[in-house]
Amino acid sequence: MLDVRRLRLLRELARRGTIAAVAEALAFSPSAVSQQLAVLEREAGLPLLERTGRRVRLTPAGQHLVGHAEAVLERLEQAESDLAEARGGLAGALRIGAFPTATRAIVPAALSALARRHPGLEPMVRETDPAAVAHALRSGDLDVALVHAYDFVPAAREPGLAAEPLYREAMYLAAPAAGAPEPPPGVDQGAVLRAHAEDPWITATPGTLCHAMTERACQAAGFTPRVRHRVDEFATVLALVAAGQGVAVVPQLGVTGPADPAVRLTRLRMRRRTNLAFRSGAGAHPAVAAFGAALRAAVPPELAGFRGPE
After folding, report:
1. Which residues lie closer than 8 Å to 301 by C-beta, 6 or more apart?
2. Which of 79, 122, 137, 158 is deepest in the core (most CB within 10 A)?
3. φ/ψ of residue 37, rounded to 5
4. Separation between Cα atoms, residue 118 and residue 214, nearest integer Å
5. Cα dihedral angle (68, 71, 72, 74), rounded to 10 degrees?
6. pTM value?
7. Counting runs of H as helices and runs of E as strands, what totals does the chain give?
8. Would the keyword Transcription regulation turn up in this protein's UniProt record (predicted)?
């Protein structure tokens, strides 16, 4: 009989490519991962791995087994959901990942509603960049997470995970009000961005989706931004824009609050889409479903019209 825990290790190896990466992600030693995979090969009765230098490649049999592992793990998530439903009454920890703007603007109201309806549930929020969510969900560090994707950085399909749409928000170019004149209505997005091709730019830190979004939007407009500052928190980004330190692309939830007369916001033809992500098969888990319902009720009215497909 194949061991589910070893199948999970094989799946992670298929995603990460090295024993060391699997060990780091799952808090094991590399030798322990290697030993467990060797046991799995003996259980399977044929080679599952081919070693090429420091990397490990799955054999065709190993790749086929990973597909079965995905199905098995999804069914186990469904079984846990059914058992939680049968027990009745939500209790215990719910580990939630969220990015900063959602943590500030939406999550607190959702948690308040969740506490009123399910006082035995203990939500635990951790700010997590969406780029790191998939690994955290698959490894079990998170149960559910808010993730976003941009028009220029679409969400990649992540095996073993599922997602449901929550809302969409507009994107803006933030520029010093004392700078170039505001573009006339109807000017296309590329022209708006190209007008600032020679200006210094403020982006998020490399490796984040927000950084990739700005880089790709500018490249689509025909130039590579000259980055002066790398800042992840949008309130700080807008403060730097107001100080004349550069221009930036920011989402709608990043510009809430009193308008700063030193910052000019020009709406772009871009969207940021926010989804609720979880392990495949876990969408019907009562705790996940309850949190999703609370989130949808907490979406600000100005974003309600952006739900659903374009």
Report:
1. none
2. 137
3. -70, -35
4. 40
5. 160
6. 0.76
7. 12, 10
8. yes
